[in-house]
Every structure is written in structure tokens, then in C-alpha cells.
Amino acid sequence: MNGELDTLIKLQEIDFLILSLKQKLEIIPLEIKNFEKKMQEIDRQFENENKKVINLEKKRKEKEIEIEDINDKIKKLKEKTSQIKTNKEYQALLKEIELVQENLKKEEENLLLILYDLDEAKKVLKEIKADIDARKREIEDNKKQLEKEIDITAQQIEELKKERKELINKLPSELYEEYIELMKKHKGLAVAQVKNSVCQGCFLHIPPQLYVEIKLNQSIYHCPQCGRFLYYKPDKKLEQAQVQTQ
């Protein structure tokens, strides 16, 4: 194969790799942000469940104080019985004590409901916490892996750039400039393979005589339509079949 053509093909392969790795570098931070977003959502979920427990704890304390006040009230009312002088006042006081005791019973039942809800909420919170811890560990591991990939990818790009520089030194400056122009013009594809007489860059059918010359890979040819450098890559399976036939 023509040495300059071979260099152009290798240069194109390296530029493809660099482009692909750079795209990967652009995507990884977005994936890390997604993981961070998931972590924030998980934290919010836990916080919401935790708020339920805190509110129920608050209700429990308020209810306990309320019940304590009612008990104090009953105690004071009972202390008054010794001071009552008439039966009418006594009956009225008993009635008042009865009403307060009924209220006490009602509030004690409410306290039991709060304690039940609190117990259930704590169980749910405990389950969510265990699930959250597992999911956080998984997300954190994925995030660290992606951060590690950034370093590896950046290192790969640097190594490819060194190889690229060595290849550029093998090309005449005008040929390299033409390569760069074609890269800009065709979004990164300056060197295209010709397969079955078709340019794989713009899919033009290459004229028969030109195709015969391109297949030799002995000179640099351009696509008549898109202007890309063209090369031919022999089909190994076809070659093997031809050898076996012979």
C-alpha cells in the first residue's frame, strides 16, 4: 500500500478513536450528575418519611401532656368533694368528674392510635433506611467507577495524541492540511473505504476504471463527489474463498 495513504488511514482511525473518547468524556459527567440527582431524590424520600415520624412523636408528646392535664384536673375535682356541702353540688361535681373521665378515656384511645401509627411509621422508616443505604452504596460505586473512567479515558486520549503527532510527521504538510479541511467539511470523516464500488463516505458509485486503480492502493485518489481520500480494504473471507477455489 502507498505509504502516505496508509498513514492517512491510520490517522483517520486515531481521530475516530479520539473523537469517540472525547464524546465519552462529555457523557460521563452527565451520568455522574444523574447519579447525584438520584442520591438527592433518595435523601428527599427518607426526609419525608422521617418527618412523618417526627410529627407523630410531637403528637404523642402533646397528647401525653394533654392526658396528664386531664388527670390533674380529675385529681383536683376529686379533692373538691370533701368541701362540698350540699347534695346538689355533690351530684354536679360527680357529673363534671364523669365528663372529664370520659374525655380522658377518649384521649387515651387517641394516644393509643398515635402510638400505633408511630410504631408503623418507624418500621417503614427502618425498611426505607436499609433500602436507601443499599441503593446509595450502589450509586456511589457507579459514580466512583465513572470518575475512574474519566481518568483512564483522558490518559487514552493523551496517548493517542502522541501517536497522532508521529503520524502527522510522516505526511507532507499540504496533504495533512487537505486532510484537516476534509475532516472539517465532512464531520470527522476524511478518509473513506470503497466497498463494492461504493464510497462509504457519500455512497457514490465509483467509476469502474477508478475503482480498479483504487483497489491497488498504490496511489492517493479522491471521491469524485465528496472529495474524500479513498482506499480499498480487501475482503479476507472472499480472498480465502478464492484461494480455496484455486
Automatic annotation (TrEMBL):
<feature type="coiled-coil region">
    <location>
        <begin position="32"/>
        <end position="177"/>
    </location>
</feature>
<dbReference type="Pfam" id="PF02591">
    <property type="entry name" value="Zn_ribbon_9"/>
</dbReference>
<feature type="domain" description="C4-type zinc ribbon">
    <location>
        <begin position="198"/>
        <end position="230"/>
    </location>
</feature>
<dbReference type="InterPro" id="IPR003743">
    <property type="entry name" value="Zf-RING_7"/>
</dbReference>
<protein>
    <submittedName>
        <fullName>C4-type zinc ribbon domain-containing protein</fullName>
    </submittedName>
</protein>
<keyword id="KW-0175">Coiled coil</keyword>
<dbReference type="InterPro" id="IPR052376">
    <property type="entry name" value="Oxidative_Scav/Glycosyltrans"/>
</dbReference>
